[in-house]
């Protein structure tokens, strides 16, 4: 046999085997039906249980006798005891029982001798509100003798005596089963289904961090099923427990509507929240009051049955009333809830059947009740699960679409702003040359305008780029130790210049008790501080800007808190909620001349969130605003900082050196960029320093050059077609002969985004310069990395 043939055979087998299994199970099914038809009946004649239809006698107060058959209701008041007797039949045998269904204390006598005493008053779980099957043992000797029953509960209503049965234990069990097992079994299955639904959807709800209405429906249905279980006579037989189950049934009934209120409220997206809340509160109050009355035996649940029924009825009316009203009012929003409507319709239909059965059963308990309501709940649960799965799918589709749309938007913004930066780079660079070289005042003035406008354009593009990176989750929080004094100093120095320009009073109140060294992402904290401070300056025409910084401890640890308070234009209350949204700008009339993209606060809020902090705004329109930010930080050194001004970065090499002009005619710098205009800008910007520049238009070209020649510094562009800056850097380490093994390589990039610097340093660059290159930054960067001996200060 060839290999192909044996595979074919195997495939045939895997097709045939399941069919054989199905066939065999069908055979078993047929055998079951056959057995049900032809097998003989099990002989029950040996077990018996018959309703006792004998005549009973009651002695009235005036001594006259009244005869009756069961069931019977005595004309007595609550607390009155009753005594009634009968002559037992002649055919009584041993091991027979008189089965009485009651919840009241009674004593049974045969010819004056006590044979059974049920004392309901000793019950520890409160007053008894449910009847039980109580079996009074009979003997052959009792045949034809007088049986007297004395109902002696003085705190209860003893007027009703239900049907009694005489039979053996098995017969009595069968009788009880026959009467109550169907709704009970149904309720157990429904309860299990509800528990399963509850567990599964609670887990899903946790995972997707969204409240799912079905959880509350399942809870409601579980309660309803439990109510039927507790209310059933089967409870006593199945659980072998008595007395508290009836109380449980009442308690559940009184509160039953509440989970359905929560369910519908979620489903109807809070449209009728107020009504549901009012009704829930009324139900809760009702529950508490009735419980107190019941357990203090002031008014048992049984005695306020009509009141309970009325409340339940009002709840049901409310539920269906709102459903119908909502259906008519909000046709659009409930349109896609067809499954749920079928479920509700099913429940309504079967509830009506249940009510009809209850009415028909009023005089004789012939029809099985309770079961129709359960069928209705079954249908509701089934369709509600289908509906929930349907809306979860919709939600998933919606989320996926939203994620895809956000990504597409972020990618588009990132690409566009990157593309825009390249020409701005050329404009700023060339304009700088005009500013430096032009002797014509007019031209210098025009160039100045170009300078302001292009820098403004650059700010906008930077905002968009930052925002799209933050939104796409491409920004990391990099924590390290930092000196908070320096951070405050840096931010306030930057803002001080701007406040001076606008003639605003700038005050810094830094708590002297702040711990000196903290652990967190200093760069992001500075960004957040500067953003908020910048806004304060932007939106304040006159007055004061107060920058306060202090520390606070809570259960989780230390929090750095800073607030910026201004006397600016303020923000309207309705705008405050939208403040941290994307592209939101307010008060366009007043802000017409203030430049901004509406992204600053969105970026700030996201950075704060990423750092686990919170941001609050408190503003009075026309008077000013206060932004407060709390950031959890670890304390490394808790020595108080004292005066923050002591932490100015005075020993910074850059700060000192850039104050001086320099030349470096001996130095040789390699500029690698695919765009000629970019290379030209850098070459021209460096011309003042007399540095020798060599240009390369690709990574490949650079590799060739550094194999032959030594350079003191390399400025390498990141985004290049073919081999980009990072690839080129990697290739450098594989070169056999490299004349620039120790040469610092600076990344040049238009990728001037939040988190870019770390990215480049990690890739192995010595440092990073963002395009458009600012002449000042370029000169100081070159100065920082050129060998000391090549620098000649002017
Ligand atoms: P931008 O300032 O670029 O417009 P932001 O996201 O920083 O964007 O701010 C969003 C809006 O919030 C601003 O346009 C302004 O209307 C308002 N705003 C922010 N800070 C203040 C402030 N300190 N005072 C008054 N309004 C402010």
Features:
794 residues, alpha+beta, 6-stranded antiparallel β-sheet, 5-stranded mixed β-sheet, 27 strands, 50% helix, 18% strand, elongated, binds adenosine-5'-diphosphate
Write a structural description.
The chain is α+β, with helices and mostly antiparallel strands and 794 residues long. Helix 11 (371-437) packs antiparallel against helix 12 (441-471). It contains 22 helices and 27 strands. It is elongated. Adenosine-5'-diphosphate (ADP) binds at residues 535-536, 538-539, 566, 568-571, 579, 584-587, 591, 596-602, 625.
Secondary structure elements and pairings:
Layout: H1 3-38, E1 49-51, E2 56-59, E3 65-68, E4 72-73, E5 82-87, E6 96-102, E7 106-110, E8 113-118, E9 132-138, E10 146-151, E11 160-161, E12 164-167, H2 169-207, H3 213-231, H4 234-239, H5 244-255, H6 257-267, H7 273-295, H8 305-329, H9 331-334, H10 338-360, H11 371-437, H12 441-471, E13 480-483, H13 484-501, E14 505-510, E15 515-520, H14 522-538, E16 544-554, E17 557-566, H15 573-576, H16 600-610, E18 614-620, E19 624-632, E20 634-640, H17 653-657, E21 662-663, E22 668-672, H18 676-686, E23 692-696, H19 699-708, E24 713-717, H20 725-732, E25 745-749, H21 756-763, E26 767-770, H22 775-785, E27 792-793
The structure holds adenosine-5'-diphosphate.
Adenosine-5'-diphosphate binds next to α14 and α16.
